[in-house]
Amino acid sequence: MARNIQAIRGMHDVLPDSTPHWQYVERIVKEVMSCYGYKEIRLPIVEKTELFKRSIGEVTDIVEKEMYTFDDRNGGSLTLRPEGTAGCLRACLEHGLLHNQIQRLWYYGPMFRHERPQKGRYRQFIQLGVETYGMPGPDIDIEILLLTVRLWRRLGILDHLELQLNSLGTTEERLVYRQQLIEFFSSYPEQLDEDSLRRLKTNPLRILDSKNPKMQALISQAPILMDFLGEQSQAHFAQLTQQLDHLGIRYTLNPRLVRGLDYYSKTVFEWVTDKLGAQGTVCAGGRYDSLIEQLGGKPNHAIGFAMGMERLLSLLEESSQLPEPQLVDAYLICVGENAELAGFELAEKFRKELPDLKLQMHCGGGSFKSQFKKADKSGAKYALVLGEDEIIAHKISIKPLRSDHEQQTVSHEEAVDLLKKVLN
Ligand code: ATP
Ligand code: MG
To answer: What is the pLDDT of residues 241-269, one digit of tens each?
Structure first.
């Protein structure tokens, strides 16, 4: 016998028992986005490799070792998108959406990174991304933080998440800091791991983003970027934190927060939980004004974030905030020669008059007993029963499956009214 083919490591199926949980979160996400007036943008999953190299930075984990890159059949190098910001900005520039305009956008879909698969770290994963353009902040910085807080509140997980904040200043400020970092880390070459030694030469800020536990003690003694910020960057950050204080949004200052991508400046943030182990960052983002010019646009402003949906769902599960879905409200049982055809007609009448009713009709025949078993297994609250007696009387029987209430035999119109009541 042929061997079964399995899915690619780190790429997962979402099975029917879990899809209702995804649909629940997706519905809330969409509601929150539209209640802040954000518009959805849909982008290709594949882009030119050059786009990611130019935006994310050549010396980042993503570009160095995580991209799924392949040659197109007619030449040219393509890459499965490892994140959404670059593609979103590319689309906005290409279609002139930044020309004298402000944009508040969101997108949702799979991203691909060739990482070592583990809990909360996959090779195909879903991100919700938010990007805004044309606003220097810090008002918009605050708005998108408020938006995330609203989302956590709606999902019932605000208490499990901590907002960590930092400012990365401007490119010029980071250059001065970079020199200080090089001097600091160069004094402890024996304490640097292989990655950090390499980064010391290419991209020393990345050392601060190291996940290696052995590096953390040294990193905690490194100079702090905040001390190198100029007046304007300081003022931006001070205004941000003061307004967050005023609004009652709690945060922790994390001076080592640099993010895994090169394009950030000024405000950066992460929402972190201690309920998911090492992969505790559920949502991360920041300001990336300079990326727009880097991709060929005019000087402009941008801030956004991306949320890892698998981690978000794990957090909801860990904190028991996933509602049990009702997949079937009623199960239609039809026994007898005439019942099946009448059943189809009646089911369609119910579906027409009660569009919210989740009605499953029995297929495959069988006795009352076997059909009732299936009804019970479906999770339905009611069995609707059509037998010869009901057909002759032009009626239908309704039997509650999850309570001791009596079975009732009623007219079709009465059945609609009854089901309408139980749906509310
Ligand atoms: P990490 O430090 O955990 O590797 P990152 O800095 O690479 O994250 P971003 O590129 O900022 O993450 O992506 C934003 C969010 O997307 C992360 O905070 C996380 O929730 C999620 N995410 C990133 N990579 C993965 C992955 N391989 N599997 C699942 N979720 C991921
Ligand atoms: Mg990463």
So the answer is: 999 999 999 999 999 898 766 778 899 99
Sort strands 330-334 and 382-386 into parallel, antiparallel or unpaired. Answer: parallel
Ligand 1 centroid vs 300 CA: distance in angstroms?
26
The full set of domain ranges for the chain reads: 19-169+229-318, 330-423
CATH code for the domain defined by 19-169+229-318: 3.30.930.10
Confidence of residue 116 (pLDDT cuts 50, 70, 90): very high
* pLDDT over 90 (residue 367): yes
> What CA dihedral angle connects 201, 203, 204 and 210, to 10 degrees?
-120
Closest C-alpha to ligand 1, atom 4: 260
Superfamily of segment(s) 330-423: Anticodon-binding domain (3.40.50.800)
Mean pLDDT (the chain) is 94
- Cβ 387 under 6 angstroms from ligand 1: no
- Say whether 330-423 and 19-169+229-318 share the same fold: no
Residue with CA closest to ligand 1 atom 26: 121
Q: Which ligand is nearest to the CA of 57?
A: 1
What predicted TM-score, i.e. pTM, was given to this entire model? Answer: 0.92
At 337, the pLDDT band (50, 70, 90 cuts) reads confident
Question: Cβ(306) to ligand 1 under 6 A?
Answer: yes
- Reported as a pLDDT band with limits 50, 70 and 90, residue 96 is very high
